[in-house]
Amino acid sequence: MTNALPILALVALAACTAPEVRLATPQIDSDVSVRTSFPSLEMRLVSLPTYAGAEEISIQQADGTITSGASLLWADDPARAVTLALSRHLSLITGATVAPEPWPFDAYASGRVDVRFTDMLARSDNQFQIAGQYFVVDSEGRGRDRAVLFDIQEPVSAPFGPAQAADARARAIANLAAEIAQKAL
């Protein structure tokens, strides 16, 4: 009987744990089209603030604090998901060959895009904000290097919650890709 107690304890513990719930960011399309002189671009893995890089979905409270919970997680690693979304959008917007690092082709990319976020957050005022700086490097040395600050806000639709924040995040990333293409490529 004493051997059965640890097994019963494990079964009881397993029954008490909630199933893992994950939220995917919807894939949206951009209607922007921009011609670029870069035939190929390498998209560096984005840099995110600690709270935005975590699996847990973070939301700003009315008092300014940022909270998250382990009950609802992003479906993919946030840095990977944002990098892939930017890569996809830039490819569709420009028609260039765009791929995330490491560059998968034999010939080097003609340019590189590096995005560093200072903010990526569903705020308490029902806005989803992304802010930071992006860098476009001309690998062929034609003097087209760029460093541009950005601050993009998208409304979070009612009722304010994680699914609505994920939708606003998708729109904000699409807008960032359009801005990069229009201002730096």
3D architecture notes:
The protein is an alpha/beta fold and 185 residues long. It has a single domain, classed as ABC-type transport auxiliary lipoprotein component (Rossmann fold). 31% of the residues lie in helices and 31% in strands. It is built from four helices and eight strands. The strands form two sheets. Strands 5-2-6-7-8 form a five-stranded mixed beta sheet, with helices on one face. The protein has a three-stranded mixed beta sheet with strand order 1-4-3. The N terminus is likely disordered.
Can you say what the CATH homologous superfamily is? ABC-type transport auxiliary lipoprotein component
Overall average residue pLDDT: 87
Category from helices, strands and their pairing: alpha/beta
CATH class (first level) name: Alpha Beta
The percentage helix is 25-40%
Question: CATH architecture, please?
Answer: 3-Layer(aba) Sandwich
Tell me the series of helices and strands, N- to C-terminal: HEEHEEHEEEEH
Secondary structure: elements and pairs:
Blueprint: H1 4-16, E1 22-23, E2 40-43, H2 50-53, E3 56-60, E4 66-74, H3 78-94, E5 97-100, E6 111-122, E7 127-138, E8 146-155, H4 162-184
